[in-house]
Batch of 4 targets.
Target 1
Amino acid sequence: AATLGLEFQRMQFTADLLPSDILGVSVYDQNDRGFRFHPGPVFTQLLLADEINRAPPRTQSALLEAMAEHQVSVDGVSHRLPAPFFVIATQNPVDLSGTFPLPDSQLDRFLLRLSMGYPDAEAERAMLAGRDRRLMINETLPRLAADDVLALQKAVDGVHASDALLDYVQRLLVESRRHAGVRVGLSPRAGLALLRGGRAHALLLGRAHVLPDDVQALFVAVAAHRLVTDVDGAGRDALAASILKAVAVD
């Protein structure tokens, strides 16, 4: 957030967290003799939902409208969120006590799922021997501003995807819905996410058009968490990789 120059809020998700703790609440103002809306932490540009699966599904779902529509509705009134707006979430392993699995509709709102894992030996040694990371974060200077992020998002939309590329993405979606081991395949939203991720990947590499390589580079990260299967974690990643391998590039 500091590097991007964006407004930032962090929310610690817990079992007793309520949707109103995230979205905000209307409070009666005696002076105005009416209700006044007090925005919650979601009214920011970059929201970190820490340990999101420690909150019950009802609270997790409070972010659905915010992530899809960039607005929240409270007491029948819609409130726009700042632009740009996006959510980064962390979660605990699902086999830990006190965790709730994220609903499929919530998972589908996240563009990517990445597993950090453990650092390699060299990075871990540098971390142990280095300065306090909290001090380093406090000293971080912005490299971009909100307008720069919006301009980059607009540039992503301008990256060309050919009909052949669209055919390839559509074949991946179809294969996911009939692939062995998959109970529910990828949704149309997943196809849009693949295209947007592919466009962003191409832009970062300095190209004005999307190649199958761009889609392949992101497919597991975009698709694995969206698949409804009988396996989880690395098993889903392997299943997504097998779907990718099953679809040839024309």
Note: The chain has two domains: 1-145, 158-250.
Target 2
Amino acid sequence: MKKFKIFMTLAVILPLVSFAQIQSKKVTFGPGKSGTLINGTIKGDLIIDYLLSVNANQTISIALNSKSTSIYFNVMEPGSTGEAIYIGENEGTNKFNGTASQSGTYKIRVFLNRAVARRGSSASYGLNISVKGGGVQSKSTDAKVAGTKYHATGNVDAALGNARKGSSTAKFGVVRGSGTAAIDVQIKGLLKHTLKFAQGEWTSNGDSVNAKKSNDEWEVILNDYEHYYIPEGIIYGG
């Protein structure tokens, strides 16, 4: 059985994906289950990050099945800014087995070969994911912050207009669901907003919303003026 720590010496920085659309989806298992099959379709330069919460020393098995020979997946450890411990395009197998070296949220990044993506081609796939040993962490065990409805509270970077990131600060409180989140944010002196995240999309009642993702952080822009910088850890926990 391979261990993640063995791969660490082989980790590489992946090509920049700032111009690609990235969707994030949380992986959950049914009651009493240690695995799941996810069926999906990917097209063009779309990238799908499946987020899997794992405990250290648990065993992860991943297999990607498709009629297409141009679809791959990578595996990234918690906190990765692009380094991958498994690169499907290099391995050529689209199968991964390993033991987690640390607890946290691992990314399973599904994508098309760059040349095929440029042509706007699409591919359907089945992604088999299983986690064994030590109890599956992906089943939500989020605790509430004492005396609140929130699973987490704190501050996030913010900005107004064309000001730089972090020139303002916003208080936040998040209520998490299964792959969803409702985040109350407020910059001092301004109205409170509720940012809602589901299926890789952001909404806010009564506000125009634009959002873009860079590595593990979303920049959510309300009404072309208020900028909120939301790390994925706030959305998914872990």
Note: Residues 152-236 form one domain.
Target 3
Amino acid sequence: MRGGLKAREARLAFWMLLPTFSIVIAIVILPVIANFWIAFKPIQLGDLRPPKPAVRESVRAQPKAAGEVLEVRYRIQNRTDNPITWARFTDELAPGLRPVELPDACHVAGALLTCELPGGLAPKKTVNLEVRFVAGSDYFAAGAPYPRDSRPRVESRAPNPILSKPFTVQNFASVLTDPDFWPMLKVTLAYTVFGTVLSILLGLFAAQLLSPPFAGRQVLRGLFLFPYVAPVIAVAFTWVFLLDPFAGTINA
């Protein structure tokens, strides 16, 4: 009977602690694994998201009367160092525009212009697509809207650099061969070692001074503990205000 009760208590404790374990794994362990994964990938901050093309629309010729040509150029750019495998954009056309010259990558269905690049875009590549329309009377009846009033909607597919690029130690080699790395490491170690040692020694010295009873000991103990309970943000802003080079109390 006692064995069965212990087993039920163990299962109950497991299910009660499972949410805590899940939160710890999601908040602490998974980001650590992600950081190690990224450290061995030849990527930069801009590679954390899949690349997307940038589409810029420019008007080359604006019609002044019915029957004249409206010429629009779409400039599609891949500004990243990663390839885009497929891209497409759509743009809403103003009423009264009839296409007369379209690139092979584009077609018009109703009032919607669609241009597709099935081969995608290589890194740092730019593609220009020029589209020509004839403006009818409906175009001017609608107030001759400027084509750039409607922004193209872009869709694309590209491999995620975090998953697609190979593992390498290039990042570590770049850091270790950087001429500023070793001086910064020395400064960091100096602050770590001397800061820790001095804080322990000064803390022990202050504790010994405040250990014997004397008048005002409780007040001094409270003052020593104040930095531990003061909000970090408030203390940081206080020092920023005091050391401000223009209006600071100390550094002005």
Note: Strands lie at 54-61, 69-77, 86-92, 97-101, 106-109, 112-117, 126-135, 153-157.
Target 4
Amino acid sequence: MKLDLDGVPGTVSVWCAPVGAAEPVYARAEHVPHYAASTMKIAVLVAAYRHDVDAEVEVTDRFPSAVTGAPSYRLARAMDDDPQVWARLGGTASLGWLAERMIVTSSNLATNLVLRTVGIPAADAVWRQVGARHSRIGRGIEDVAAREAGLTNEVTAYDLALLLDAIARDGGRALATLHATRHRDDLAAGLPAGTRIAHKSGWVTGVRHGAGIVYPRDRPPYLLVVLSSTTLPDAAARTLLARIAAASWSGGQ
């Protein structure tokens, strides 16, 4: 697997390895922490599926801050990609449905509702349970008071690979949900049409991540995690991730 990433303006971390393998086919800056963006939702998903997924959750856009004594905060509707979750504001939704929307459409409102239900400590504990050392979940989305207090959500390429490897080997509901992800404009865009990939993207200004399990028809599945914190425009960052995915397909196995 040949890649020339030295000219990228920022930090690009990569982990590519067969599912279950101890050693990677390719690794670069795999232990460097990045702001997680929506990739933290994978750990929240695992925590959610350990709860009663049929439990009804009150749908609200106001959330308690992770900082003790700080006022509650409201999540802006403009920060979300899923109008279906917002349509239930003032009503209820099952925890399982919210967990699916959190991944499939990357709904931030669903994420905060799931995180409030399972608790930040339980979601953060998922990292430790798979052996991750550097990744953490410290706050909900748009919790400004927590962000200013230094609480954040971080991931590394290696830690995300550990989590995805555990999900792949378990083969349960979390894996099926990741297969249903609709955003396919970074890693998936670099793979041959029709390739199965269970994955989650994450993006904010200056950040574009992709983490997935790729299922070739003629080879065993493999893990591919690409984290980019750069000054690239998002379109260029998406193209970068697609290029790395293409390299993993042609030269990573």
Note: The mean pLDDT is 96.
